[in-house]
Amino acid sequence: MEQVAETINEFVNGAIGLNLKETIIQIAGTLLLFLVVRHFFWTNITDYLEERKNHMAKEYDEANEANSEAQSLKVKAVSELTEIRMSAKSIIDGAKERGEIERVEIVNNAKDEAAVVMDNAHKEIDSEIEKARTSINDEIVSVAVLMAKKVIKKEIDESKHKELLKEVTKGVIS
């Protein structure tokens, strides 16, 4: 058996360049270290890893929750923005309509006022014309009276009378 062990040792030593005794000692040391770590520290390490795993899962869940909340807030903000835009558009459209109605009312009022001014001007013109006619008639009457006085004072023949009437009518017309 020793020969087999030596042969294996030489083979392993020649193949990988390792000494079998040193390898066994290193494996035994590693196992001993593993057992000591497992006995004294393994629960602490597994507790720490479990705690870390739980903490990571919690952070992942919180991130997912925050992401879904952000998505819902985004949808809500977009819908509110759409509502605000629609409201603003309706307010602007309403203002345009009211402005157009007010413009039409102002134009109609201006036309009515212009018509009243024109009507008053026509009435004033008609009144002035009537005053002028009355004044002319009064002048004609006063001229006729004056002529009558002159006729009475002097007796004139018919040709002078016609000439006098022509002069008076020319004076009245101009």
Number of helices: 4
Radius of gyration: 64 Å
Q: Runs with pLDDT <50, length 5+?
A: none
Assign an overall shape: rod-shaped
Q: How many β-strands, per DSSP?
A: 0
Mean pLDDT: 84
Q: Let me know the largest β-sheet.
A: none
Domain tally: 1
Helix content: over 70%
Structural class computed from helices and strand pairing: mainly alpha
Termini separation: 168 Å
Strand content: under 5%
Q: Could you walk me through the main structural features you see in this protein, from its secondary elements to its overall organization?
A:
The protein has 174 residues and is mainly alpha-helical. It has four helices and no strands. The chain has one domain. Helix 3 (42-153) packs antiparallel against helix 4 (158-173). The longest helix has 112 residues, at 42-153. The radius of gyration is 64 Å and the shape is rod-shaped. The N and C termini lie far apart (168 Å).
Which descriptors would you attach to this protein?
mainly alpha, single chain, 4 helices, 174 residues, 0% strand, rod-shaped
Write the layout of secondary structure elements.
Blueprint: H1 2-16, H2 20-40, H3 42-153, H4 158-173
Helix pairs in contact: 3-4
Brief sketch in words of this structure:
The protein is mostly helical and 174 residues long.
